[in-house]
Amino acid sequence: MEEAVNDGVAERRERLMESLRAYGGHYTELGRRFAARLGLHSTDATAVLEIAAAEERGTPLSPARLSERISLSTGATTALLNRLEAAGHITRAREHSDRRVVTLRSGGHIQERADEFFGPLAERLDATMAQYPPQLLERFEEFMADLNATMDAHLAHQDTQTPRSSTTRRRTS
């Protein structure tokens, strides 16, 4: 009896994981298309979006935090930031009382271009989510938070088990 219950969980997990993989693929493709529209490499566009999103949340990123978010070494992140700053896509500022702290800001045109590109999708997603009761969406948020925490714990465990190269970093939420 217990085996039958576990089998149902495994099947449901597989279906859900396949749906999440498909969503991830769509997310990646959107990022690739946004990068192409900006004439940037996809990693550079991802960095610009991370910087702009952090600004929108009111928690601008430092170069070290960006490095973690996009899974690049600090050296590669510095080269990326140099390219983006030279192109006028970002600025580095020393806004903190500790002048050693660097804050990343996106150029105004980036937010405008991101809104133009992702705005129609945001409207469609809002319309889709509006079909579900708020309590169910709250449960989805909890579910996704739990999945992300499980993945973070697994990655942290792997970090203690398997040495990684100095250029490989895991993405954090």
Structure overview:
The chain starts with a helix and ends in a 12-residue tail after the last helix. The protein has a two-stranded antiparallel sheet with strand order 1-2. The longest helix has 37 residues. It is 71% helix and 5% strand. It is mainly alpha-helical and 173 residues long. The mean pLDDT is 88. It contains six helices and two strands. α1 crosses α2 and α3 packs across α4. The protein folds into two domains: 130 residues, Orthogonal Bundle (Arc Repressor Mutant, subunit A), CATH 1.10.10.10; 42 residues, no CATH class.
Instruction: Please report the first level of CATH classification, the CATH class of the largest domain.
Output: Mainly Alpha
Strand tally is 2
Number of domains: 2
How many H/I helices?
Answer: 6
Order of helices and strands: HHHHEEHH
User: What overall geometry do the principal axes of the alpha carbons give?
Assistant: globular
Features:
mainly alpha, 2 domains, two-stranded antiparallel ribbon, Arc Repressor Mutant, subunit A, single chain, 173 residues
Tell me the layout of helices and strands.
Layout: H1 2-38, H2 42-57, H3 63-69, H4 74-86, E1 90-93, E2 103-106, H5 108-129, H6 134-161
Antiparallel strand pairs: 1-2
Helix pairs in contact: 1-2, 3-4
Short description:
Helices cover 71% and strands 5% of the residues. With 173 residues, it is mainly alpha-helical.
